[in-house]
UniProtKB/TrEMBL annotation:
Residues 144-402 form the AB hydrolase-1 domain. Residues 93-110 have a biased composition (Acidic residues). Residues 93-138 are annotated as: Disordered. This is Alpha/beta hydrolase. It comes from the Bacteria. Keywords: Hydrolase.
Amino acid sequence: MSESRATGLAAVVDAIGGLRRATGIAGAAIGLVAAGAAATVAVERMTVGRDVRRQARLALDAAAPFGTLRGTPGRAVADDGTELYFEVDEADAPADPEAPEAPEALEDPMPEAGPGDLIPRPRSGTGDGSSAGLARRPGSAPVTVVFSHGYCLNQDSWHYQRAALRGVVRTVHWDQRSHGRSGRGVAQLQGAEPLDIDQLGRDLKAVIDAAAPEGPLVLVGHSMGGMTVMALAAQYPELIRERVVATAFVGTSAGRLGEVDFGLPVAGVNAVRRVLPGVLKALGRRAELVEKGRRATADLFAGIVKRYSFAGRDVDPAVARFAERMIESTPIDVVAEFYPAFTDHDKTEALARLRGLPVLVLAGTDDLITPGSHSEAIAGLLPEAELVLVPDAGHLVMLEHPDAVTGWLAALLTRAGALPAGTTVGGYGRTSSTAQPG
C-alpha cells in the first residue's frame, strides 16, 4: 500500500474513531450500503491494475463532453449574502465554436411508449397542447426554462437536456449554494442557522430575479432541485400564479424521505437513520483529512456512486465517471450540512399552488434514493400531471436515459406553449447500447 493511500485511509479511521461506539454501528450500516459496490470493485481489481484504472479515469475526463456546455455567466445574491452562479442560454443564440459538434435531431420529441420503453400514465385534464399557458400571461419577454440540480451535483448534470434545447428556448442553469461554482452558504459558514429546503427556495427566487426578471417561466427540478421548486411555490405563490406556465419534477419527493430504505435490509436502514447525521457532522469537522481518505478509496466510492445513480449494467463509462466527478467534488462538510434538511422536508401542501398548470412528474423505476412511489404521490396530488416511470433507470435518469427525459420535457414545453407544436429538439448521444429515444 502506498504511503499516500495509507495516509488517506488512516485519516478516515482517525475521523471516524472519534465517534466511538455509535460510529461503529454506523460503519456496519454503511458497510451494508457499500457491499454491492465492494464486490464489483473486487472483481475489477483482479482483472485491471490500479494504475490502469487511474489512466482510464483521466482519459474519460479528457475525452467526454460533459461540462463543456457553457452559457452567459451571471451571479445572484441570496438573502444571506451567498453568491449564486448561473448561466443563460438564449434562444436562437449563435453557435459556440468551442461547443461539441451539433447533435442529431430526434424525429419525435415524445415518441409513443412501447414494451421496454416508457410507462406513461397520463392524468386527467392534461390539456390539448395549445399555447393557452402563454395566452394567460401576455408579454414580449421570452419563455425561460429554469433548471435546478440535485444534492451533490451541479448545473452540468442537465448536460443532455441543455444540449438538446440549446438555441430552441431560453434556459437558465444554476448551481445551488455550496455546489458547483456558487459560493459557500454564508449563513451556514457563520453558524447562524442550519440549512433547510426553504432557504433553497429563496435562493431560486434570487436567481429568477437576476436571470429572468420578466416573462413566463417553466421550472424544472431534479431530486433536491425539485424540492427547491416546491419551496419556491410555498413561499412565493404570487410568482407561481403570475408567471409559471409549467413545472417538471424529475426523481424527487414532496416528503417522507425518512422512510426510504435505500435498498438496504431493515437493520441496516435503522442503523443508518440513527447515526448517519452524527457521523457526517463529525466527518465534516475533519474535512481535510476525510477528503484525503475519499481520494484514497476512489474505487469503492465509484462503485457506490454507480449503484445509487444508475440501474442499468451497461451505462456508458464516461457517464458513470462524470457522475462520480460531480459527487466527489462536493466537500464532505457540504454533504453533512445539507443532509439533515431532507428529513424535515415536507412540501405536500405547496403542491396545491401548481394545480391547473401542465406538470411532468418523471422518475426511474429503480431509483433507490427517491423511489418511484414518491413521484406517484406527487402526481396523485396534481390532477393535471403527466406521470412517467422510466424502466431500468436509477436516480440520475436524465443522464442514464437522456432521450427519454428530453422527449417528455419537450412535450411538456409544447403543452405549455413554450415550444410551437411540431418543434423538434436535438438528441445528444446515448449512455448505453440499449438506450432508445424516449
